[in-house]
Design brief:
The protein is α+β, with helices and mostly antiparallel strands and 179 residues long. 29% of the residues lie in helices and 36% in strands. It has a single domain (9-173), classed as Aminopeptidase, CATH 3.40.630.30. It has helices spanning 24-31, 45-57, 104-119, 134-142, 171-176; strands spanning 9-10, 14-18, 63-70, 73-83, 88-95, 124-130, 146-157, 160-170. Helix 1 packs across helix 2 (45-57). The longest helix is centred in the middle third of the chain and has 16 residues, at 104-119.
């Protein structure tokens, strides 16, 4: 049962809409750029296809995935992997390298935080990244997320055992911040 309607979120510059199969080729294009996956396992057209197809068919209560559009152009995605029982979600985001450094991900994440806390009634949103991925950690810090954990040698990515850092924000802290 899908108790949440798939929304359209708007910010000053962006429109975030639910992901669709028609977004696949654009997401594949930016996901296969060399620098895009420097902290992830190598993406293939097939793995990106599986990611998009899963996001499209998943229950919105479990996987609320938006594409980020700027001036009608799809440039990235942001989404929540939701645990309804615990009222928590993991946020994940991606952006075409062409748009890095323009404040787009923080703007999109801010909108998704509002949606998650206000509409989905979440109590906590967290994120994880490779400990060497300083740009992603910078986004987390800009969003007033606090580091919760550093898990040493936690994953294998690109055949290398890597550390993972977790950040989170509680709804109560988000409400106190300038959101």
């Amino acid at each position: 049962m899908n108790i949440y309607k798939k929304p359209l979120l708007k910010t000053e510059r962006l429109i975030l809409r639910p992901i669709k199969l028609r977004d696949l080729s654009i997401i594949q294009k930016y996901s296969l750029e060399d620098e895009f996956f420097r902290f992830l396992d190598f993406h293939t057209k097939e793995s990106v296809k599986e990611f998009v197809e899963l996001a499209v068919v998943s229950d919105w209560n479990d996987n609320a995935r938006f594409v980020i559009t700027l001036k009608s152009e799809t440039i990235g995605s942001v989404g929540l992997y939701i645990n309804q029982k615990e009222k928590i979600a993991e946020i994940g985001y991606s952006l075409s390298k062409k748009y890095w450094g323009q404040g787009i991900i923080p703007e999109a994440v801010r909108a998704v935080f509002r949606y998650g806390f206000m509409d989905m009634k979440l109590e906590k949103i967290f994120a994880q990244t490779d400990s060497l991925n300083l740009p992603s950690q910078s986004v987390m810090k800009k969003m007033n997320m606090q580091q919760e954990a550093l898990l040493k040698k936690h994953i294998i990515s690109q055949n290398i055992r890597r550390d993972v850092v977790y950040y989170s924000i509680l709804k109560s802290d988000w409400e106190k911040s300038d959101h």
